[in-house]
Structure formats: structure tokens, C-alpha cells
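Hello Y.,

Per our agreement to keep a running log of every chain we model this quarter, I'm adding this entry. I've kept the format consistent with earlier entries: sequence first, then predicted structure.
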Amino acid sequence: MSTAALYDRDFHRWCLEQAQALRALSAMRANLAVPLDLDNLAEEIESLGKAQQRELASRYRVLLLHLLKWSRQPRRRTRSWRSTIATQRLEIARLLRQNPSLRARRAEELAEAYDEARTLAAIETGLPLATFPETCPFTFEEIEDPEFLP
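Predicted structure for the entry above:
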């Protein structure tokens, strides 16, 4: 796949590959007509790709927080919670469509996001942390299913 096509199809992967290429060019000590700060340029491009990862983790955290609150506080459910759940699912789906290479990072990002969501759920609900399972009680299919509510 050409770099232009990769840029359009998977920005996350494109950033990581471009950063790797810039580092390789820097290691070769390329004699460029216009001097470039290749090491820092590679780091900045790589950080753009990692921003996509951080967005995925953030969206999972918010989604899981609301799924936990939904499951443990049925009398406090609101349309706002439902809307937040739907919004996060839509944005996760969009992010994964635009950055397919992030699919390989889903399990890692989800596990970390769940730990954070669990802590936040305890704070927001006032319920003991032990109220919420130590490991994520939802499957990927449930988490990303637009119709699923615990």
C-alpha cells in the first residue's frame, strides 16, 4: 500500500511508519540540502499517531464508566447517560474505521480504561469500589454493540 493510501486508510499506522522512516534516515546521517531535525520530527509525528491511541482509551473509559453506572444504579438512569453511551460507541467505531491498526491495541487500551472507569464509577456513584468487578464484565461485542445495555 502506498504511503498516501495508508495515510487515508490508517492514520495511526501511517504516523508510526513515518516516524520509523525518519529515524532510519536520521541514523543514516543523510546529507539533505535543507537540514531537518529528523529525530524530533519523528517524535512529533509518532505522537500524532499515539494521540489516536489516547483517544481510543479515553472513549473506552467514558463508555465503561457509564455502562458501570447504568448497571449499578438502575434508578438513576437518565437519557443523558444513554446518550453518552451511544456517542462513545459511535466515536469508537469511527476511530477504528479510520485507524484499523488500533484494533490490535483494543484489549490493552480497554483493560487500562476499565481500571480507570471502575475508580471513577466508585467516586461518581459514592458506592464502594468493591461494588464494581475487578475485571471488565463486558465483552468487546457488548461494549461496541449499539443496542447493549447491562
